[in-house]
Design goal:
By secondary structure, the protein is an alpha+beta fold. It has helices spanning about 10-25, 55-65, 65-85, 100-110, 115-130, 135-145, 150-160, 165-175, 200-210; strands at about 1-5, 35-40, 50-55, 95, 185, 190-195.
């Protein structure tokens, strides 16, 4: 069974949502048969390349929120993450910027068989360490941590080789119903908008599994059994 997740690198709900998916899969009875695949849903293309902004400034620029509102929202997400075992999870201390290059890096890593590792690493770097992931140098450092060839990574990023792939990935998510991030699709049939809690995701995993793995009853013959009104008796019972 497959779980697809569309995310934005700097979206705090996306990092938390990815964590919740992982917890749900860990609790799922058939978790070893679940493949989790991350996809890009860029939301920061409007920021100028080469510049970063504080969370407070970005919240004002994009959403019209003042500093106190931005801080309250960030602290709420940080508290939720900590309560769910995701710590440290730094939202307010982060800077935001254009993530287009980061998504191209993630697409490249995915083609090298490191989809989940790369997304885990970029969330851990950004939210766990409050380090930027926007520049070529930032991403080449991550490439080294993931054992990706730095020369090849530099070349594909400088040539924007994966830009179209990122755009196509985001459009696919939109066709499936995504109008924001995170957006989760379970087994290609159940679309889940937002960072749903792990209990809800676990229930959906079980539902999707049951849909495709129905129980076939074997012939029972006259085997003794109890019904709602009476228990059958048999000398062979």
């Amino acid at each position: 069974m497959k779980v697809d997740i569309w995310s934005e690198v700097t979206c705090p709900w996306c990092g938390l949502g990815s964590h919740r998916v992982e917890r749900a899969v860990e609790r799922f009875e058939h978790g070893d048969e679940v493949e989790v695949v991350h996809h890009s849903f860029p939301l920061s293309s409007g920021f100028p390349e080469g510049r970063t902004f504080s969370i407070r400034d970005a919240a004002l620029r994009k959403h019209g929120l003042d500093g106190r509102q931005a801080e309250a929202s960030a602290r709420r997400i940080e508290a939720l993450a900590e309560s769910e075992g995701l710590s440290p999870y730094r939202v307010l201390d982060n800077e935001v910027g254009n993530t287009d290059l980061a998504h191209e890096f993630l697409a490249h890593a995915s083609t090298q068989g490191k989809n989940r590792e790369a997304w885990d690493a970029i969330f851990r770097t950004y939210f766990g360490q409050a380090q930027t992931v926007f520049s070529l140098d930032d991403l080449l450092k991550l490439a080294g941590e993931l054992a990706l060839d730095r020369g090849q990574t530099r070349q594909v990023l400088e040539q924007s080789r994966y830009r179209q792939r990122v755009q196509d990935d985001a459009r696919r998510g939109q066709r499936l119903g995504a109008n924001g991030a995170p957006f989760i699709v379970i087994d290609g049939r159940y679309g889940v908008p937002g960072a749903q809690d792990s209990d809800t995701l676990l229930d959906l995993l079980r539902t999707a599994w049951a849909d495709t793995h129905p129980v076939t009853l074997a012939p029972g013959g006259d085997t003794p059994a109890c019904g709602p009104d009476i228990c059958a008796t048999s000398e062979r019972s």
